[in-house]
Amino acid sequence: MGGQPPDPGSTSSGAVFLSYASQDAEAARRICDALRAAGLEVWFDQSELRGGDAWDRKIRIQIRDCAVFVPIISANTQQRAEGYFRLEWRLAEQRSHLMGRNRAFILPIRLDGVAEKDADVPDSFLEVQWTRLPEVSPAAFAERVAQVLSGRPASSSQMSAATAAPQGRVDPESSPTPAPAVERAPASLSRGESRPRRAGWPRMIQLGVPALFVVIAALVLIPPWQHREHARNLLLPGIENAAAKMFRSNRQIFDQAMEAHKYLPDDPTLAKLLPSIVNRLSIETEPAGAEVFWKDYDTPRADWRSAGMTPLKDAQVPRDYLRLEVRKAGYQTIDLAAPMFSLRMTPIKMHLRLDPVGKLPPNMVRIPKSTTDMQIVGIEKYGPKEVPEFLIDKYEVTNKQFKAFVDAGGYANPEWWTVPIRDGDKVIPLSAALARFTDRTSRPGPATLGSRKLPRWHGESARDGGLVV
Fold first, then answer.
1. What would the pLDDT profile of 167-222 be if each residue is shown by its tens digit?
2. Do the beta carbons of residue 28 and residue 20 sit within 8 Å?
3. Alpha-carbon radius of gyration of the chain
4. Residue 72 domain-assigned (yes or no)
5. How many alpha carbons lie under 13 Å from residue 272 in its C-beta half-sphere?
6. What span, in angstroms and rounded, lies between the C-alpha atoms of 246 and 302?
7. Which of 146, 162, 178 represents a domain boundary (last residue)?
8. Residues forming a β-bridge with 356
9. Sign (positive or negative) of CA dihedral 256, 260, 265, 266
10. pLDDT over 70 for what percent of the chain?
11. Angle at CA 217, nearest 5°, toward 256 and 261?
12. Which of these three, 129, 162, 195, is where a domain ends?
């Protein structure tokens, strides 16, 4: 079933796609030989090893690009309620809906005595003419296909000999039913007799209302179908290809996956790909009602995208290392990078406390409470550890700030050293710790900082390059 998958980049718009049940492989081969003898390109797979995502994707591309689709219908297809050939039939039928009614695309072949009215086939197969084998030779069918591809109409004798009428049409082999006689109106009407009036507007309305409903139904039903086909035949193969090459997800592949999932919510291939593309984001804030924004960490100039308002539960974001912002009017914006450990990409769950603007010291931020894993080889056994929330400078300390701290006696001021100082398991006083704090001259350090002139380029902030050296 299906042709031997070529490289998608080399597909030809003039190819014939043969779709058949594996039990009909021999008959399909004879038809293939006849088509190729007529100089036609045929996609025909004789391999018994079928399946896999790459094979499936190539089959979909072939059906999308072929010029003629030939389903082979037999007692074998009737007995098989499931089979890959049925998916091929459905894809071909869906593509035919995009074509004009004069475009010959589906050319069914019937191998045995299966009646059209009993055939388990898509409805569109019943709207076209069937070829009966062995009444018609494969060579005659190949000639008809060649005429279809060349755009030349087949003669009436060829059509009646090579095809069977579709369901609902008159079979050429059956006796035609005589048309009912039509009474002629008299040449003239006697005086006083009125001529019948034309139907006029009532007749036009009677015909127009059903047509209007058909147009409305088409406008409602066709666009969603087109979206599904776009997702299945274009988006999904692109997502598979990108997922096979990516180290982590990103906004681009995430957006494609979300669009495909909107139209293919139950697609098994997409379901296998989503866990590697999509992560879950859950954030609670005190107070609630903050808006959470995200972007890929390695695209800092990209626009922020809103994930929703807190409390936020299982919002979908790329399975990537992200920049997050939590914003609420009147409160200091919180900047975050998550997940905490970028290689594991676990679901993001946080509980944050928002601080009113002006409550925290200038240029300081609150680091939320978290559980930190020990991911360094040799110390994994000491983790995970619960780390309470704390405040930290937003920027690194500059030389100028450090000098001001030393000049103000910051090291000797016990107000800044409230945490016990330990030497092993023993707590030691601040004075004993300061006695050990010496520089390379063995003097209490940094002894030379007071007489040292800072380089002119050392500015006030880390962004000016004024880091501690």
1. 444 344 444 444 343 334 444 434 344 444 444 556 566 666 666 666 665 555 55
2. yes
3. 38
4. yes
5. 8
6. 20
7. 162
8. 331
9. negative
10. 73
11. 15
12. 162
Mean pLDDT of the chain: 78
Domain of 158?
8-162
Residue 267 lies in a domain: no
By three-state DSSP, how is residue 367 classified?
A: strand
Kindly tell me the sign of the dihedral angle through the C-alpha atoms of 314, 318, 321, 322: negative
The residues, any chain, with a CB within 8 Å of residue 259's CB and separated by 6 or more, are 231, 235
CB 97 within 8 A of CB 69: no
CA distance 280 to 315: 5
- For residue 385, being part of any structural domain is answered with no
Is 154 part of a structural domain of the chain? yes
Distance between CA atoms of 11 and 17, rounded to whole angstroms?
12
| Number of domains forming the structure of the chain | 2
Q: Is the pTM of this model over 0.90?
A: no
The mean pLDDT of 313-319, rounded to a whole number, is: 93
Largest CA-CA distance found in the chain, in angstroms, rounded: 138
List pLDDT tens digits, range 61-71: 889 999 999 99
Statement: residue 117 has pLDDT above 70: yes
